[in-house]
Write a structure and sequence with these properties.
D-Maltodextrin-Binding Protein, domain 2, single chain, about 25% strand, alpha/beta, about 300 residues, Arc Repressor Mutant, subunit A, elongated, 9 helices, five-stranded mixed sheet, three-stranded antiparallel sheet, 12 strands
């Protein structure tokens, strides 16, 4: 009979493509992980991984075993969720993934209220711009700025977020307040610096300026919306940023309110196994309420 502990370790190694990363995830040494995999290969009398300098790749037999173990984990997870949600109060683990900017600047400050209201829910928040695999239980629920691509995922549109131009009050006192879009080329712009953008048209404000002055150069480029916010806060310049990032920022002001950026739709996404979960239900209700309280729910959301 196959050893379940070895199968669980095998699945983690296959997902991580590395003994070292799998060891970190399971809190085991690399040598312990390697011994478990070698033992599993010996019991099955087949090689499960190709060892390469760039990482571990599954053999054909390894792929077959990985699919089977993944299906077993999905079924066990569904049973676990059903048992947990049969209780009167929502309880058990809830692993949330959210984009870096919205996770750090908006969601995290609100989570104290959620964990206080539901102390029996064990909340983890993974702030990451990567798209984690919900089908493989890398997270239970995702907040995303784009709809789900996988047909087996459930999605709920939460709201539509707006983007505007912002500058610190110190910057505006020093350099003046732009009264029209035509004045923007005389100001210092902070822009996003990477090809993989957190949402479509993230550099919308720069595009507006380039229409007026083709050779315009921003004062600062950086590959993080949160870092752009900190640069604005320091008085470095003006940036086009999501409105939700400005909660509790009285020293930063919106400029040119008639010049707005692209609207960004926010979705809450989770797997079919979680559709009856009380943890998902209360978290969805919480999100909708907090967006509404912050004035971030738009008509039709």
């Amino acid at each position: 009979m196959l050893d379940w502990d070895k199968l669980r370790i095998f699945h983690t190694v296959a997902t991580a493509h590395s003994f070292t990363r799998a060891g970190e995830m399971l809190n085991l040494s690399q040598s312990a992980i390697s011994r478990q995999i070698s033992g599993l290969e010996a019991s099955l009398q087949t090689e499960l991984f190709h060892r390469h300098a760039r990482g571990l790749l599954l053999t054909e037999q390894g792929e077959i075993l990985f699919r089977s173990v993944s299906e077993m984990l999905t079924r066990l997870s569904a049973v676990e969720n059903a048992l947990l949600d049969s209780k009167d109060r929502p309880r058990g683990p809830l692993k949330i993934t959210a984009p870096m900017a919205i996770g750090t600047t908006w969601l995290t400050p609100h989570m104290k209220e959620f964990v206080s209201a539901y102390p029996e829910i064990e909340v983890s928040l993974l702030v990451d711009d990567r798209e984690l695999d919900l089908a493989r239980r890398e997270a239970d629920v995702a907040i995303r700025l784009f709809p789900a691509k996988h047909p087996d995922l459930i999605q709920k549109k939460i709201t539509t977020l707006q983007n505007s131009a912002y500058a610190s009050n110190d910057y505006l006192r020093t350099y003046g307040v732009p009264r029209s879009k035509q004045e923007l080329p005389r100001h210092k712009l902070i822009t996003f610096a990477e090809m993989r953008q957190p949402f479509a048209e993230v550099n919308w404000l720069l595009k507006e300026v380039l229409k007026l002055q083709e050779d315009y150069k921003p004062i600062f480029r950086i590959n993080s919306l949160f870092a752009m916010l900190k640069a604005v806060e320091s008085g470095m310049g003006i940036a086009g940023l999501p409105d939700y990032m400005m909660q509790g920022m009285p020293h930063i002001s919106k400029v040119l309110p008639d010049v707005t950026g692209p609207a960004t739709e926010v979705y809450m996404i989770y797997s079919m196994e979680m559709r009856n979960s009380k943890r998902i239900k209360v978290f969805k209700e919480f999100l909708l309420r907090k967006f509404a309280e912050d004035g971030l729910v738009k008509a039709g959301a």
